[in-house]
Specification:
This protein has about 450 residues and is α+β, with helices and mostly antiparallel strands. The protein has 15 helices and 19 strands.
């Protein structure tokens, strides 16, 4: 397929923005030297996987500029979500001359950031907690952008942000937990359910006890997701019912959400959990199992971790979860080592539900537990190949694949997170997104 860019597009430094900038950006994304974590999401582009694995040159990627305004994209297979996928920030263009000149400093401070959007970043040193955005006068729709400056203040905790909002010092504040509940009936509150799944990840390959299916199922059945979101998170998050989050995609006839069609596969049943744990104890030849649980050093990480720890230990006598609270980067490194017991993790895929299911494919980079199931792999391959010619069949296989994952307890789904904000009622035109940037103020304006 081919796409035509608007004429007269420019970067904030005055350079022309052309189709070549997209080619450069996409080649850079798939280049293995970039080590982009989400590169595999775009393997539907011709040769993308081979390029990303270093088996083909980046110049062989299925994208080329036919002219300054015409971009041609060649796919490996049919993609019903292509138009939506093209809006991903990972596929935004990049100014090759600017990137090459900045080198390793690219993106490390506002000096090494260039824009083609409505605003330009200023006065960020790479680690500071304050910076601002100013209107980009090179933006092609600058006349529709009302705000001239946006001041950013990172707060250390929610209470500080709320106090600043209440004092009229900021027009927007992020809320968590208790504060969402406090402002529940306030018209200034806006909650956005994210297209993300947060799970209790299992080191199936690295821990002997977790290789036992009955034990994995017992762990899952011990957790009350509704209690977790209503009494612990209290921020509008949704209890997980399956692998793919609610609101991502609807059936081919446009009537049913995939989450609703799949049904509630994730149950809370402490009685059954105890029975399965008793069986697992016999199979494992032990009465006690101790597991490490890695969580982020955030309030949500601590609270969710302690809740999961309490429910499992109280239900499954003899099971101990030792919480290891570490920086998010360290937790992620532990997951990527493929050597861990359990960890709180999550996944934000793309508009195709396949990107959520791919996590558990044999050999996939982010299959942290190294789960492997031949039936599942076959289903996944079918979903991403022959099913693309029959979306009704694909729909049924999307449902079936999630049932396989839960039946084999590849992971333990916990909740679908939400982002909540207080927004000044005088700030009009704010648009919310459940994938990507939660709040878009491109067309926002203040009224007196």
């Amino acid at each position: 397929m081919s796409s035509t860019l608007k004429k007269g597009l420019k970067w904030s430094n005055g350079d022309k923005l052309t189709a070549h900038d997209f080619v450069f950006a996409w080649q850079r994304l798939l280049n293995p030297k970039t080590a982009a974590q989400n590169a595999s999401v775009y393997y539907n582009i011709k040769n993308a996987e081979q390029v990303n694995l270093g088996k083909k040159k980046v110049s062989e990627l299925g994208v080329q500029a036919l002219s300054d305004t015409k971009l041609e994209i060649t796919l490996e297979r049919r993609d019903p979500y292509l138009k939506a996928t093209l809006s991903s920030e990972n596929l935004f263009p990049e100014n090759e001359a600017f990137v090459n000149k900045a080198g390793k400093k690219y993106g490390t401070s506002s000096k090494y950031v260039i824009s083609n959007g409505p605003f330009v970043m200023k006065d960020w040193d790479g680690s500071g907690t304050t910076w601002h955005y100013v209107k980009n006068n090179q933006y092609h729709e600058k006349n529709d952008v009302t705000l001239k400056r946006i001041n950013i203040q990172v707060t250390k905790n929610t209470a500080t942000g709320v106090n600043q909002f209440q004092a009229g010092k900021v027009d927007n504040a992020s809320l968590t937990g208790y504060y969402v509940k406090q402002f529940k009936n306030d018209k200034r509150l806006k909650t956005v359910l994210q297209l993300r799944s947060d799970n209790l990840e299992l080191g199936i390959n690295s821990n002997k006890s977790l290789k036992n299916l009955n034990f994995r199922k017992a762990l899952s059945l011990s957790i009350n997701r509704n209690q977790l979101v209503n009494d612990v998170l209290t921020d509008g998050s949704r209890a997980a019912t399956s692998i793919v989050p609610k609101g991502l995609v609807k059936s081919p006839d446009g009537k049913t959400d995939l989450s609703d069609a799949t049904g509630d596969l994730v149950k809370y049943n402490p009685t059954e959990a105890k029975k399965l744990w008793a069986t697992a104890q016999k199979e494992l030849g032990t009465k006690k199992v101790s597991l490490d649980l890695y969580v982020d050093d955030s309030s949500d990480g601590k609270n969710v971790g302690e809740y999961v720890q309490g429910k499992i230990q109280n239900t499954l006598k003899g099971v101990t979860l030792n919480i290891k609270q570490v920086p998010a980067k360290s937790r992620f490194q532990k997951l990527m080592s493929y050597k861990f017991d359990t960890a709180l993790g999550g996944w934000s895929g793309n508009f195709d539900p396949y990107t959520f299911l791919q996590q558990f494919e044999t050999g996939f980079e982010h299959n942290h537990g190294k789960f492997s199931d031949k039936e599942y792999d076959a289903l996944l391959k079918k979903i991403n190949t022959s099913d693309l010619d029959n979306l009704d069949t694909r729909w049924q296989d999307l449902i079936k694949s999630q049932k396989v994952l839960i039946n084999q307890q590849a992971t333990i789904p916990l909740y679908q997170p939400a982002s909540s904000y207080l927004i000044n009622p005088k700030l009009k035109g704010v648009v919310t997104h459940n994938l990507g940037t939660p709040l878009d103020v491109t067309r926002a304006y203040l009224v007196k």
